[in-house]
Design goal:
Oligomer: single chain
Shape: globular
Structural class: alpha/beta
Distance between the termini: 30 Å
CATH superfamily: P-loop containing nucleotide triphosphate hydrolases
CATH architecture: 3-Layer(aba) Sandwich
Number of helices: 10
Largest sheet: 6 strands, mixed
CATH class: Alpha Beta
Radius of gyration: 17 Å
Family: Belongs to the ABC transporter superfamily.
Order of helices and strands: EEEHEEHEHHHHEHEHEEHH
Keywords: Amino-acid transport, ATP-binding, Nucleotide-binding, Transport
GO biological process, one term: L-amino acid transport
Pfam family, one: ABC_tran
Protein name: Branched-chain amino acid ABC transporter ATP-binding protein
Length: 232
């Protein structure tokens, strides 16, 4: 397993939002984490990337416990992160958004390679990010996270701000990431669509894993469908 969580707890102040999470993620696979609002999904993402103030238990990257590492060291160790909001610098150009990412050896070459992956960004590379559509901003957020060539990508609600016509494109982009060997931890409200491209899934409830298993099994589970997955 490239990423594993063992009895992970944590939250803000003295209040625990996560109450003993056990999850594991293999290289080149997608694990969707779903659940109702307030279940702890985004808190889990922050715990993995190092942005949660207080975390207990173990989070292992390639067997190394990273709980004590700050966010920047986790990024250097191979964890990329696309938050739900504030995921680009609006006043900077597309190129500048990529250039400010730290810890990149061949910065110019990496920017060129990523712009080739996102033609819409390449065409507007000198435009400020504030001029981009929601879908283009998401592409830029993905590109920023990929600058350091991460082995694990943590995506927090990547389709939340997208027009319905862009949702399928976003899920295809996520599936493509996994096909390149990157492990993807996907936090997503559109649970059915997310599980459809995933290898495994987990449903949180009250900061605990209520259900977990192969994605296809969760999609077929009547209890999961009734209580957690909704219509989309």
């Amino acid at each position: 397993m490239i990423l594993s969580l063992e009895a992970v707890t944590g939250g803000y102040g003295e209040v625990d939002i996560l109450n003993g999470i056990d999850l594991a993620l293999e290289a080149g696979s997608i694990l969707t984490v779903a659940g109702t609002n307030g279940a702890g999904k985004s808190t889990l993402a922050k715990a993995v990337v190092g942005l949660l103030p207080r975390v207990g238990g173990r989070i292992r990257l390639d067997g190394r416990d990273i709980v004590g590492l700050p966010a920047e060291e986790r990024a250097r160790a191979g964890i990329g992160y696309v938050p739900q909001v504030a995921n680009v610098f609006p006043s900077l150009t597309i190129e500048e958004n990529l250039a400010v990412v730290e810890g990149v050896a061949d910065r110019r070459g990496r920017i060129g390679a990523l712009l080739a992956m996102f033609p819409a960004l390449a065409e507007r590379r000198r435009f400020r990010a504030q001029s981009l559509s929601g879908g283009e901003r998401q592409q830029l957020a993905f590109a920023r996270a990929l600058m350091t060539a991460p082995r694990v990508m943590v995506l927090d609600e990547p389709t939340a701000a997208l027009a319905p016509s862009r949702v399928a494109e976003s899920f295809e982009r996520i599936a493509t990431l996994a096909r390149t060997g990157i492990a993807v931890l996907l936090i997503e409200q559109r649970a059915r669509q997310a599980l459809a491209i995933s290898h495994r899934g987990a449903i949180l409830d009250g900061g605990k894993v209520a259900l977990a298993g192969p994605a296809a099994d969760l999609l077929a589970d009547e209890t999961a469908a009734r209580l957690f997955l909704g219509a989309g």
